[in-house]
Amino acid sequence: MTHSGDDSDTGLPASLAAAWGLRERPTKGPRPGLTLERIVDAAVALAVREGLAAVSMGRVAKELGVATMSLYRYVAAKDELYVLMLDAAVGPPGPPPPADAGWREALTAWAEAYRQALHRNRWSLRIPVSGPPVTPHSFAWWERGLTALEATELDEGEKLAMIVVITGFVRNEVQMMTEIEEAVAASGASPEDAMRRHERVLRQLADPARYPALARLLDTGALTGASDPDEDFAFGLDTVLDGVAVLVARKEQERAVAAESKGAVAGSKSVATGAKGVPAGSKGVVTEATTREPVERPAVRTPHGL
Fold this sequence. Notes:
Blueprint: H1 14-19, H2 36-50, H3 57-64, H4 68-71, H5 78-90, H6 103-120, H7 136-148, H8 156-187, H9 191-205, H10 212-220, H11 229-276, H12 288-291
């Protein structure tokens, strides 16, 4: 992220420090009524109407009826404005899950809420990722996701990795659906006609001798058949969470094994201490533990079926 006027304490650009409430908003100047919130709101409204490509410092200034240079007292560069726009548009993650919700239920609600937020602001998918989250709402989303995994045996790095995987899945699903819809709209055909046209092209190109798996897929109609995007998303998310569940179960098993081993070691030390701790006055007593290796005794067996 390119910027100027970093906050001396946090290293954040002045505009992001102001978003955190760590820096006072400019109050001096020819237009004291101009605020960072008004600038961001105008930029978001412009992106909603005309797309992210329409957003520029000059265009936002025109929307607000101010000189372009007056914006730079609040936002040093357009990429800073993008970050603030994304934070304002996506907003906070909403109410937390019930206190008795398990990690899977909590992460499912988290992912679905994030998907809805992106669907409401598809223009935000055009904003390139310029670094780790540094805005108030992005912190709230990450906090909610990490908290969902708090009761598991995953370490902090593994929790982070799981949130990155789920975030990537959600963003990819929304972006893919958005691009498909945009392509269909640009073709001028209905979604049904566009899919039938696509299928005809694939059948012409997918020689069964060269692409047998693809040919079989086309014969089933699964590729071009009607599907519910919400059901597809739920299936994909469940599959991702199944993978998380495997990791969570493995970590729980590892902890149980470690605890059992620790208990066995502690028990062995206790036995060894007892063998050495011969009571005073019993010097003439010779014990098996002090004279030779322990004798291996036959296991006690019970009749079959009992």
